[in-house]
Amino acid sequence: MIVHSYNLLLSNLCLSAILCGLIWTVQLVHYPSFLDVGSKEYLIFQQNHMRNISLLVMPLMLLELFVGIYLQVAHFSTNIHWAVYVATALLILIWFVTFFIASPLHGRLVSQGYNADNIQKLINANWWRTIAWTGRTIILFLLLLK
Length: 146
Description:
Blueprint lengths: L1 H32 L5 H35 L4 H35 L3 H30 L1
């Protein structure tokens, strides 16, 4: 069981770390660049972003979700169980922000076109995902060290 738990934590850490690096890039580089795209080109830019980022992020997020759920239900010693709950809560927060805040904002940017207020809302809301993925990665790393 110890080897299985270690492999499960390592898999979850790898997925979380990849997505953490990706979300920091999106937060600091990609989303702010939305403000620099001209309104004429914006619709094509936004559609391309949504299609391409989804192809990259969704498989990783789904894998992270499945491994995270399995991690949650797997048998761990009680001294690290609280950390698994926190990591799972952060995963739930990430999915909530993705589907109930970020995705609708992307949808508005497609249907309404360039809107600096909506872009800024997207940037602000994305901080929740950025912080949550960073927290998950740190927690999973610390669990792996135990």
